[in-house]
Design goal:
Blueprint (H helix, E strand, L loop, with lengths): L2 H17 L15 H28 L5 H26 L6 H30 L2 H22 L14
């Protein structure tokens, strides 16, 4: 395993452990949790890690570790995952007997993924053009997606995950 991959794996593990969704000391046993609550926790983690994946591609491209073609390929694969997730969220909103709070969370997740989708589009544009406007659009979407993720997952505002990368 290359040092890049080892470093990224270590970084992702550390971030997930340090800033993952907060767990209550009195969390109910898993068998008592509603399936949508479990799906919600997994969705929140996936949202967070999707943000990290896009930031990793952007950072590696800006540092010259990835070519434009490599950044494009990786970003396109992330876009496909985002689109698949959004499709499943749309299906979940159509479920019968879904609670108002679950529907609200699903809608908020979809909004966050929509911003990530926009961010990815701007990253694709920038990695192909190196245009300052494309970079500015990417950075704007990046900041908006991070704000939405912090709000949605209840992350401490002092966590500035990769906030200054690529700039």
């Amino acid at each position: 395993m290359s040092w890049h991959r080892e470093w990224m794996c270590s970084l992702l593990l550390a971030i997930a452990l340090a800033a993952g969704p907060r767990l209550s000391a009195q969390a109910p046993p898993v068998e008592q949790e509603a399936p949508l609550a479990i799906i919600g926790a997994l969705s929140g983690s996936n949202l967070y890690l999707t943000y990290i994946a896009l930031e990793s591609v952007a950072e590696n491209f800006s540092c010259g570790n990835y070519t434009s073609a490599q950044a494009s390929t990786l970003t396109k694969s992330i876009v496909k995952l985002i689109e698949g997730t959004r499709s499943k969220l749309l299906n979940a909103r159509r479920l019968e007997n879904i609670s108002a709070s679950d529907e609200e969370f699903i809608t908020a997740l979809d909004q966050a993924y929509a911003i990530l989708h926009t961010e990815a589009g701007h990253l694709l544009a920038y990695s192909g053009s190196l245009d300052a406007d494309d970079l500015s659009n990417f950075l704007d979407a990046k900041h908006r997606s991070w704000e939405k993720i912090q709000q949605l997952l209840g992350l401490d505002k002092s966590i500035l995950l990769l906030e200054e990368s690529v700039e």
